[in-house]
Amino acid sequence: MTATAFDHDPVMCDEIVAAFANVPAGVIVDATLGGGGHSEALLQSRPDVDVIGLDRDPAAINAASQRLAPFGDRFGCDRVSFDLLGDVLDRRGISTVSAVLFDLGVSSHQLDTAARGFSYRAAGPIDMRMDPDSTRSAADLIDHAAVDELAAILRRNADERFARRIAQAIVAARPIADTAELASIIAAAIPAPARRTGGHPATRTFQALRIEVNRELEQLPVALDAAITRLAPSGRLAVLSYHSGEDRIVASVMRDGTDPCTCPTGYPCVCGATPTLARVRDVPKRPGAAECHTNPRASSARLRVVERTAATNGQMDEGVSDGTCPA
User: Are 247 and 199 part of one and the same domain?
Assistant: First the structure.
């Protein structure tokens, strides 16, 4: 896999660079490395930072490593899921970091490679594993899950209002050969008026299956908490999310840091909770019209940024990492 084969436009790249422009010197964690586009921009814009990239897709690790090789030991990466962020930093001897970025979207490479099974636009195996070495694929769900389980997955992970109809159609059509057949079954299960609006009718189901196979919503709060814990004072966390389920989790975790008071609404605070995060309000939440025109996959992105304001458990008093990034 060459770096060129993994090329894609990093979403809201200029906004991410701007959001991290004034974080302390040190280490930035790109928790969703992909092809390395965001990491490259950050390394170019900040000569006083190093980047550690995390990704469970070996194609992404390989492509980003080639792309970012000119930066030498300023870049290092680990093939892990992002919920292991804390373990990676412990192994590298890094106590605090300057910033952490999560771009929760599927890469263009993954969507455009039919053999990965992420897309309904071309026939391919019903796979959808971000880590090809993981044991469960989307085909396992399609082949073996009961109607109730499938319907619950579609509701939970994609707010699919026709979840039960789709689940029943999938179970009735087994065995299903490939992603193209699966997309046709889903489309046929949705009432005709609904098929005429809101994009491809299989979008939500494919999204829900991918999220379930890769345990994305399960791992996300763990990863966000780990990132916040490791931020140095004035360090920032930026998250790009692409659907409501992800964004609800991101908003909830950030709210716990910016407004930790547990006192009843309308009463003075007596719990003594101190905010550890502040919202960064000078960044746009959505990509601009020009970016959406040139990169339609960016159109559903939502950016949230918070800044570390206080220490907890004494950890933040240690200061920022010295900036070295062990490979």
Answer: no
